[in-house]
From TrEMBL:
Keywords: Iron, Metal-binding
Biological source species: Ciccaba nigrolineata
Signal peptide: none
Name of the protein: Iron-sulfur cluster assembly enzyme ISCU
InterPro entries given in the database record: ISCU, NIF_FeS_clus_asmbl_NifU_N
Gene Ontology annotations for the cellular component aspect, listed alphabetically: mitochondrial [2Fe-2S] assembly complex
Family (UniProt): Belongs to the NifU family.
Transmembrane domains' residue ranges: none
UniProt-listed CDD domains: IscU_like
Pfam family of the protein (one): NifU_N
Length: 134
């Protein structure tokens, strides 16, 4: 299975690898995994006082498509508001990276990681509010 050049680029030159302070009030952390394929993705966002994402970091254990999806996700969320970042869909990530159908779960994982990180951030902003029903 040949990877598209965009996947290879993100795999060989991943953007925003690393971690942010998970205890900081303005940092949201999302940890998601797909046990079926063994991919695990940690995505973190740092949000400023205006609700804009000023930084994003990821660590992913998985295939090239999973790493590329999380790398692209961190690039896309930067500069967006929390609400704008929630509009990022796995189909957009898959389309941008030209993922084959067998690798679509990687883009779904990236979307889930964004949502999980932003949910964690929102929970830290209003700790009295209960976790929403899924």
């Amino acid at each position: 299975l040949g990877y598209h050049k965009k996947v290879v680029d993100h795999y060989e030159n991943p953007r925003n690898v690393g971690s942010l302070d998970r205890n900081a009030k303005n940092v949201g952390t999302g940890l998601v995994g797909a046990p079926a394929c063994g991919d695990v993705m940690k995505l973190q966002v740092e949000v400023d006082e205006n609700g804009k994402i000023v930084d994003a970091r990821f660590k992913t254990f998985g295939c090239g498509s999973a790493i590329a999806s999380s790398s692209l996700a961190t690039e896309w969320v930067k500069g967006k508001t929390v609400d704008e970042a929630l509009q990022i869909k796995n189909t957009d990530i898959a389309k941008e990276l030209c993922l084959p159908p067998v690798k679509l779960h990687c883009s779904m994982l990236a979307e889930d990681a964004i949502k999980a990180a932003l949910a964690d951030y929102k929970l830290k902003q209003d700790p009295n509010k209960e976790e929403p029903e899924k």
